[in-house]
């Protein structure tokens, strides 16, 4: 199976989790894009969705699902999103698509976060995938220097601006042995808007497509 076929397969598996749930949270990325296309068949049961990015909002509207403001909705029963890396403790690196801040907000406001991915995303130790950090533009160099002090190699994602009008640093070479501690430390750096480590609030359910199988834990 190709990686795209694996993404489609796991996206289909996530549909079981949204049956009969009127309000859902929807993440960002190519795996979630397949899920959104499939949601077209659930239009009658889904009243609306809270979206994690401008791109996802456009896709949701295209399949006829109203996009709602999280402030109006309150707590969500379920949030479906992808990931760039997943460890056995359901902790994640996210933000490859640059939507990490809104994704983290929706995950925080959701009772159940179901993470969908193809098997290539599973790792024992997070950090091979460069860790995305959303920063206030004027703080970019300062935050980059702080990350160098921590042993990372930050690379500015040039020609990219987030939906919140901020910049992204992708930090290479971090061996993330204590994800919760690192998330807290990076959160404390002035100028950081959000770090793409989802460790303090990990996923609740992981669905991974591997060959013909869907593994879940
Ligand atoms: C976007 C994300 C995505 O969930 C992550 O990049 C995975 O994307 P894909 O499904 O395209 O592999 O965090 O900010």
Automatic annotation (TrEMBL):
Q: Listed GO cellular component terms? A: cytosol
Catalytic residue positions:
103
Pfam families named in the record:
Rib_5-P_isom_A
Q: Keyword annotations for this protein?
A: Isomerase
- For this protein, the Enzyme Commission number is 5.3.1.6
Pathway participation: Carbohydrate degradation; pentose phosphate pathway; D-ribose 5-phosphate from D-ribulose 5-phosphate (non-oxidative stage): step 1/1
As its record notes, the protein acts as a catalyst of: aldehydo-D-ribose 5-phosphate = D-ribulose 5-phosphate
Top class in the EC scheme: isomerase
Q: Which InterPro entries match?
A: NagB/RpiA_transferase-like, Ribose5P_isomerase_typA_subgr, Ribose5P_isomerase_type_A
The UniProt entry, under CDD domains, shows: RPI_A
Which residues are noted in the entry as substrate-binding?
Answer: 28-31, 81-84, 94-97, 121
Single GO molecular-function term? Answer: ribose-5-phosphate isomerase activity
Q: Which GO terms describe its biological process?
A: D-ribose metabolic process; pentose-phosphate shunt, non-oxidative branch
What is its quaternary makeup? Homodimer.
Q: Which family does it belong to?
A: Belongs to the ribose 5-phosphate isomerase family.
What this chain does, per the entry, is described as: Catalyzes the reversible conversion of ribose-5-phosphate to ribulose 5-phosphate.
Entry protein name: Ribose-5-phosphate isomerase A
Instruction: Cite the source lineage.
Output: Bacteria, Pseudomonadati, Pseudomonadota, Gammaproteobacteria, Methylococcales
């Amino acid at each position: 199976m190709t990686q795209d076929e694996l993404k489609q397969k796991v996206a289909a598996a996530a549909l079981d989790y949204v049956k009969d749930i009127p309000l859902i949270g929807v993440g960002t990325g190519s795996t979630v894009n397949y899920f959104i296309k499939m949601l077209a068949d659930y239009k009658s049961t889904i009243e609306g969705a809270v979206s994690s990015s401008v791109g996802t909002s456009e896709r949701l509207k295209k399949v006829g699902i109203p996009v709602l403001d999280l402030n109006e909705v309150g707590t969500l029963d379920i949030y479906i999103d992808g990931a760039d890396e997943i460890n056995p403790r359901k902790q994640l690196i996210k933000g490859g698509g640059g939507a990490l801040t809104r994704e983290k907000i929706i995950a925080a406001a959701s009772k159940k976060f179901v993470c969908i991915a193809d098997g290539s995303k599973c790792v024992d130790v997070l950090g091979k995938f460069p860790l995305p950090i959303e920063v206030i533009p004027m703080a970019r160099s300062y935050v980059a220097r702080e990350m160098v002090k921590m042993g990372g190699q930050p690379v500015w994602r040039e020609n990219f601006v987030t939906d919140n009008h901020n910049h992204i640093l992708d930090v290479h070479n971090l061996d993330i042995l204590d994800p919760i501690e690192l998330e807290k430390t990076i959160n404390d750096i002035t100028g950081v808007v959000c770090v793409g480590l989802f460790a303090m609030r990990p996923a609740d359910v992981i669905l991974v497509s591997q060959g013909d199988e869907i593994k879940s834990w």
